[in-house]
Amino acid sequence: MEETSYNLILSKMKKYSVETHLDRRFSELTTLGCGGKIKITIYPDSARKLVKSVRLLNKLKVTYCILGRGSNVLASDDGYDGVVIVTTKMKAFRVRGRTVYALAGAQTVTLANELRKRGLSGGEFLACLPATVGGALVTNAGCYGQQMDGIVKRVKVLKCDKIRCLSVQLCQFGKRKSVFSQSDDYVILSVKMKFTISNTDSVEQLISKMRAKKAANQPLNYRSAGSALYHDKVAVSRLLDQAGLKGYTVGDAQVSTKHAGFVVNLDKATAKDIYLVMRHMQTTLRQRFGLDAKMEIRLINFSQEYTKDSDDIFTGS
Questions:
Q1: Is the pLDDT of residue 220 over 90?
Q2: What is the dihedral of CA 271, 72, 25, 34, to 10 degrees?
Q3: Tell me, what's the pLDDT at 303?
Q4: How far apart are CA 288 and CA 243, in angstroms?
Q5: Torsion-angle region of 102 (φ positive above 0: left; ψ -120 to 50: alpha; else: beta)
Q6: pLDDT tens across 146-201, in order?
């Protein structure tokens, strides 16, 4: 980042009253607990401040990425010579009958608790996601029969510096993907969701069942980024288990011994450790079952040269 741009960003963030930090690390901002130093990290607390910040960065042609709670990302160990926008200060939401309007940084667990109090159903799965609403939208997050495309009605975004409203159809939701995961052109600002009328007891019971199932099957005692891989038609965790990958380890990164679909940070895993484990999982699935699984975890600041070299490690080329 050029010094002129660097100084201008700091000056403008102060003018916009946007909280700003220098030299934070991705390891502080992601659930995996790894990743390198970040040049500038900003925390807009409103959609207006987010829009102004992104427009400035676009004008300056400065590299940036957007994080919520960092629960579905793997950032490289290298320094990030750009700006990371963290949306967790954009946490406001309001409920109008069965309809909820939420900013991108609204916490899924907090929202789920409010839905429970009001006896609104359809969003119980949100109680199981360590995410923001915006982050959950990107990957069409879900579990136990519920997911984001079942509750979303409209999404307000910034695209090419213009604010637009997208219908659920234009969001192009699929299994663990959306138009937002396929293109960096969109910045999620807010979302309109609709739920069904139920009662507090029924909603609470369903949340309890989901959380119990999650605790019984997932390695919650270690840092992870959730499910590592996915396939549109096949449950890859069963195949990984069948291939005997539970416990496979590189450095302090390990395929969970509790759930073969998770890669966990045992203590001080590097991003490279975790990436190499995930690539080995992909290669094993391809060689054993002819299955091309995709990474569910989003990669940040990984060079194409590095990812190509990592492929060569496991293919023998």
A1: yes
A2: -30
A3: 81
A4: 8
A5: beta
A6: 999 999 999 999 999 999 999 999 999 998 899 999 999 999 999 999 999 999 99
Q: At which residue do the structure tokens 């195949």 appear?
A: 239
Model confidence at 56, in pLDDT bands (50, 70, 90)?
Answer: very high
DSSP string, 97-154: TTEEEEETT-BHHHHHHHHHHHTEES-GGGGG--SBHHHHHHTT-EETTEEGGGTEEE
DSSP string covering 40-93? EEEE--SHHHHHHHHHHHHHHT--EEEESS-TTEEE-SS-EEEEEEE-TT---E
pLDDT score, position 316: 31
Q: Taking 90 as the threshold, does the pLDDT of residue 313 lie above it?
A: no
Whose tokens are 């400065």? That residue is: 62
Distance, in Å, from the CA atom of 248 to the CA atom of 277, rounded to the nearest integer, reads 8
From 42, 22, 131, 34, select the one nearest 75 (Cα to Cα).
34
Output Rg (C-alpha) for the chain, integer angstroms. 20
Contact 226, 72 (CB under 8 A): yes
Helix, strand, coil shares, percent, the chain, to 5:
35, 30, 35
d(CA 31, CA 181): 19
- Please say whether the beta carbons of 38 and 67 come within 8 A: no
What's this model's pTM, rounded to 2 decimal places?
A: 0.93
Cα 190 to Cα 197: distance, rounded to the nearest angstrom = 23
H or E element at residue 99: strand 99-103
Q: What percent of the chain has pLDDT over 90?
A: 93
Contact 32, 15 (CB under 8 A): no
